[in-house]
From TrEMBL, chain A:
Catalysed reaction, written as an equation: L-aspartyl-tRNA(Asn) + L-glutamine + ATP + H2O = L-asparaginyl-tRNA(Asn) + L-glutamate + ADP + phosphate + 2 H(+); L-glutamyl-tRNA(Gln) + L-glutamine + ATP + H2O = L-glutaminyl-tRNA(Gln) + L-glutamate + ADP + phosphate + H(+)
Keyword ATP-binding appears in the UniProt entry: yes
InterPro entries given in the database record: Asp/Glu-ADT_sf_sub_c, GatC
HAMAP family: GatC
Protein name, UniProt field: Aspartyl/glutamyl-tRNA(Asn/Gln) amidotransferase subunit C
MF term (GO), any: asparaginyl-tRNA synthase (glutamine-hydrolyzing) activity
Entry's transmembrane regions: none
Enzyme Commission numbers on file: 6.3.5.-
Source organism, top-level taxon: Bacteria
Length: 98, 526
């Protein structure tokens, strides 16, 4: 069985900015352990000599002219904002009170 | 519903286009027939629920435009061959004027300020857009059960899954609610729903169709493609949406080949068809294998040379996929933070800092499967594990490409069952993520290597459709249409095509259906 613990999941959830309850952390730890066990064979399948592929096609250096194209107005950009004020996105406090 | 309009929805898209050009039917008539069909079969408790949003007014407006142009003569020459043929769009693809939810609470009520490039192409060609189809949340799933807006039912058996993530698009086409639809395929989300609903779905060569405006799950794997009832219809739609797009830096330059022509050729004489040793046998239902071997026999009898190819690295494809896809997804979905768009949920207690609001927003906005993949991706990318997991998976990707290269030395196209099983009952795999992931075992290698693939109907097993997959080398999409169309032709020589054999669905009267259909059509609320 894999070594993924409830504490590991708690750390990962924090990195991923997803709040989780105790019950969710426990359940996720169990599920992840099974999934990670099943994909473990991948690391055993390759030797160091194989080059990595990050993209299916060898397209490189895709350039275009640096021209101003269509741009959204501030109004359009804010249309879907959960909160906005004075033409800007409004967010809760950035810093903790502590 | 009159027999006449009922009949209209059962034509192929190519036949609809031909009748529109000949002036035998109008686009308004055709579009209304599909809207009526949606009202009759999509709503209610046991309805198909392929659509998350129906856009009747907009679709009829486009249809009327096409009819006016045709009536005026002259300009009709300039119309696209598919002008006036209605289409449905997977709700992962953004549309101006129609909501886009990605099947997630996170985007409830969100309106895109722009169109995806493929949608722009549909509008330019004047295909009436009927609405947006259901999917697993952010395209993560193989059954459409992970949608935040309810399940879609398989028209062949409404107690079973329609496949996923594009179950809505496939079910809409199978249930004659639309002749054409757009899907997206990251690990099989077009092909596997096609297989289990008895329809046709293509994953084009990576880059063949612009991804601009497709909400990204795994950017190096995602691909938009056509969903249809026949190979020719899929080919015609592929031709329409393909082409280089400067807005997508991974878009392929070059001319779009004549896919429709390839489908009409439908000839496998002399074609070398490679059976992938690793994608048949253990893990596949006997009924699926029986239909697969019958397909091989039919192709052989039609003059194809059947050879066996060995792709040993495919045994690691599923594992590599479930490391690469969550890694890319965890990064792509970081943008849903409750700041610029989408849902914002405040924590029930404690201080209101942005970090805590982000945490509660993502906790409430994402479903279980999305959270699982984000956490898995975060794990695979984290310090100490990166080389062992993400790094190794990328190396496996190279090995899979090399296996494909070697296989295409021996064969012009490759063949396998599309999915190891027929449609399974709703709920069966919901508590077992790993069992759910196995549905994509045969479709995933194509995404990892970027090669094109198609699923075409291969007959029935226990009354449910079986899909046959063809794969071709990069940029050789025409070959999958040619081979797919040939099999389609061979299997419907003595019988109706499979899509025409689907059982009749219970229809509610348009009046009675109007309300539930309307409710189902606006999950995003106001």
């Amino acid at each position: 069985m894999s070594e993924i613990s409830r504490t590991d999941v708690e750390h990962l959830a924090k990195l991923a900015h997803i709040s989780m309850t105790e019950a969710e952390l426990e359940k996720m730890a169990g599920e992840l352990a099974v999934i990670v066990d099943s994909v473990r064979s991948v690391s055993e399948a390759v030797s160091g000599e194989v080059p990595a592929t990050s993209h299916p096609l060898p397209l490189t250096n895709v350039f275009r002219e640096d021209e101003v194209g269509h741009v959204f107005t501030a109004e359009q950009s804010l249309l879907n904002a959960p909160d906005a004020e004075a033409g800007r996105f409004k967010v809760p406090a950035i810093l903790d009170e502590e | 519903m009159t027999t006449h309009t009922h009949h209209l929805t059962r034509l192929t898209a190519a036949e609809m286009a031909q009748k529109l050009r000949a002036g035998e039917i109008t686009s308004v008539e055709l579009t209304q027939a599909h809207l009526d069909r949606i009202a009759a079969v999509d709503g209610g408790e046991r309805g198909i629920h392929a659509f998350l949003h129906v856009s009747a007014e907009e679709a009829l407006r486009t249809a009327a435009e096409v009819d006016d142009l045709r009536a005026a003569g002259g300009a009709a020459e300039a119309l696209h061959p598919l002008a006036g043929v209605p289409i449905a769009v997977k709700d992962l693809i953004v549309t101006e004027g129609q909501p886009t939810t990605a099947g997630s609470k996170m985007l409830e009520g969100w309106m895109s300020p722009y169109d995806a490039t493929v949608v722009t192409k549909l509008r330019e060609a004047k295909l009436p857009i009927l609405g947006k189809t259901n999917l697993d949340e952010f395209a993560m799933g193989s059954s459409t059960e992970h949608s935040a807006y309810g399940v879609t039912r398989n028209p062949w058996d409404t107690t079973r899954i329609p496949g996923g993530s594009g179950g809505g698009s496939a079910a809409a086409v199978a249930a004659f609610e639309a002749p054409l639809a757009l899907g997206t395929d990251t690990g099989g989300s077009i092909r596997q729903p096609g297989a289990v609903t008895g329809t046709v779905g293509t994953k084009p060569t990576y880059g063949s169709v612009s991804r601009y405006g497709a909400i990204a799950m795994a950017s190096s794997l995602d691909q938009i493609g056509p969903v249809a009832r026949t190979t020719e219809d899929a080919a015609l739609l592929h031709e329409l949406i393909a082409g280089h797009d400067p807005k997508d830096s991974t878009s392929l330059p070059g001319e779009v080949p004549a896919f429709g022509e390839a489908a009409r050729t439908a000839d496998v004489a002399g074609m070398r068809i490679g059976v992938i040793k690793q994608l048949t046998g253990e893990g596949y239902q006997q009924g699926v294998l029986d239909r697969f071997h019958e397909a091989l026999d039919a192709l052989r009898a039609a003059g194809a040379e059947i050879v066996e190819v060995d792709c040993p690295s495919f045994d690691y494809a599923l594992g590599a996929y479930y490391l690469i896809m969550p890694s890319e997804a965890s990064s792509n979905l970081a943008k849903f933070d409750g700041v610029r768009y989408g849902t914002r949920v405040l924590p029930e207690e404690g201080p209101l800092t942005i970090e805590r609001v982000m945490g509660s927003t993502r906790a409430a906005g994402f479903g279980d499967e999305v959270k699982r993949r984000i956490i898995l991706g975060t794990y695979a990318l984290s310090a100490g594990y990166y080389d062992a997991y993400y790094g190794s998976a990328q190396k496996v990707r190279t090995l899979i490409q090399q296996d494909f290269d070697a296989a295409f030395e021996k064969a012009d196209v490759l063949i396998s069952p599309t999915s190891p099983t027929v449609a399974f009952p709703l709920g069966e795999n919901l508590d077992d993520p790993l069992a759910m992931y196995l549905n994509d075992v045969a479709t995933i290698p194509a995404n990892l290597a970027g090669v094109p693939g198609i699923s075409v109907p291969g007959g029935l097993s226990e009354g449910l459709p079986v899909g046959i997959q063809f794969l071709a080398p990069i940029r050789e999409d025409a070959r999958v249409y040619r081979a797919g169309a040939a099999l389609e032709k061979l299997l419907s020589q003595d019988a109706e095509p499979l899509w025409a054999q689907a059982p009749e669905l219970a229809e509610t009267e348009p009046e009675a259906a109007a309300e539930p259909a309307e409710a189902a059509a606006h999950p995003a609320g106001k």
